[in-house]
# Entry
Amino acid sequence: MSRIVLLWAVIAVLLVSACAPTPAAVPAATQAAPVDITYMMWGSPDELAVWQNIVDDFHTAHPNITVKVDVADWDGYWEKLKTLYAGNTPPDVYAMDAPLYPDWASRGVLLNLQPYIDASPGLLDGLYPGTLTAYKRADGYYGLPRDFQTIVLFYNQDMFDAAGVPYPAAAWTFDDLRAAARQLTLDTDGDGKIDQWGFSPDLWDMELFWSEAIWGYGGEVIDTTAGKTLLAEGKARDAWRFIAEMVTVDKSIPDPDTAAQFGGDPFAAGVSAMTTIGHWVVPEYAKLEFKWAVAPFPAGPAGRATSVNSAGFVVAKGSQHPAEAWEFVKFAVGASGQTRLAELGFALPVLKSVAEGPAYLQQKSAPIDHKVFLDALAYAHAKPTFKGYDAWASAVGDGLIPVWTGETTIDAALDEIVPAADAVLAENR
# Structure
């Protein structure tokens, strides 16, 4: 080849390279030098074990990237996260609860993942669209869903058998729930005090019971667009009266102080016949000594409803290793990570093909009908996500405590809760 021809060949290569799109906005993950990143999450030891398995799989696929998993309980997690940010040492990747995402996204501390998503064609195609909605902002995604949860009814088969009460059926209504809860609320040792409750839902946050009751009665919880709390209007009040009567009249639901004596979960402690919760407890509940199963959420007068919420991944804007952090997020929401998540029984995968395939439906985490959680999507309402959620939830949850302890009526409490909750919404407009 002549020097002139060679020169033109070199020029042609340079021109092609100059015209090619540059990935400058998306730095490539290091291929040789080892990199350490941190993934921080809330959860129990069982949840940590699930994610450590997924991290181990990631290490096999990416031997140059080491992921350290840092776990804390729910309250401790958010406090620790704030402390790390105050010290300018946030984790590279951390778990995000969808309702709290708007607050964190508004602080300017999250990395915009859109350039990375654009460089990964098809990554989001197979994810349930509803799980993506909560993380979408005007200029892209600052987070991605990790998994999602629907809320269903869990019941202690041994207690039902001992009391001669038929198991919850798919056609159950709230009236059926209440009747069974009464029958299963007992003084088993004859000392005049209840020591077995029929039902023990969480009464503080909306996700596990009271939002479902409001929707089931035909009411609404909130109008985030108008900035108005609706949980005391119309049919919603009927739902609250139903719940309050189960706690204060039937005594079939333990008050929060009583529930706290059993670690906050009387069902797992073996002193409650039913609860409503998500799939995240399955690995933990699989160790329980009594037999238990799951059923659809009971229907209210206006129909059946449940709550669906997602946990997600976000990457700290200040991460020193954003490309490597993205590689972990991409792995966890991809087929390998989601399949492993399903097999280990922690949650519902956000990847539809995995959730509706054998990895999830035929998992060995517990001998229950896992499809019940997936079927619940047909009647699920998304848990509201909005700025100021944490303070709003506290105004509601704390305002209800005097009702459960018998110090005030549900109507009086709601009349005080709504203005306080609306004030939070106004502050966060």
Notes: The first helix runs from residue 3 to 19. The chain has a mean pLDDT of 92.
